[in-house]
Amino acid sequence: MSNDAAARWYPRATLVAALILLAALSRLLPHPPNFTPVEAIGLFAGAYLANRQLAFVVPLLAMALADSVLGFHSGMPVIYGLIAFNVWLGFRLGPDPGAGRVAGYGLAAATVFFFVSNFAVWVASDGHYYTQDLAGLVTCYTMALPFFAYTLLGMAVYATVLFGGMALARRYQPGQLSA
Known about the structure:
The two termini are 18 Å apart. It is globular and about 55 Å long. The longest helix is centred in the last third of the chain and has 39 residues. The chain is mostly helical and 179 residues long. It is 78% helix and 0% strand.
């Protein structure tokens, strides 16, 4: 590895390790429900990590590490799929997005997460918590609205920190963290 390649690789490797640690720890520390950086990290990893496989590994590994402590559950395939969807959205967002695009994609990611994950909860309830009709689905979504508020707030805070932090870092250290 040349010195130039090494100089670019180490900040990127440090960033990846820090993201995994941040996401895993955030799920283990006390926090409001759904107020974690995992979704924003998925979006960020997709936007900034040139290695697309690594972009998927970062948030999914963070989830798996935290779930190994918190416990595994039947909804994991849906949740992990939605995190992977955020990475895919990050690919579409690109490596130099403006604040408006980050906000729009963050809102889209959080909204898709809300509707798909709660649809899965409704289906999995099999009539135990929610009736398996339109009224039950509406009740499920209504009961989940407070969680959605925290998801939106978490996305706003963590996307601002991640994307804003990267914009500042790239401004003051151009070339070190180039996409």
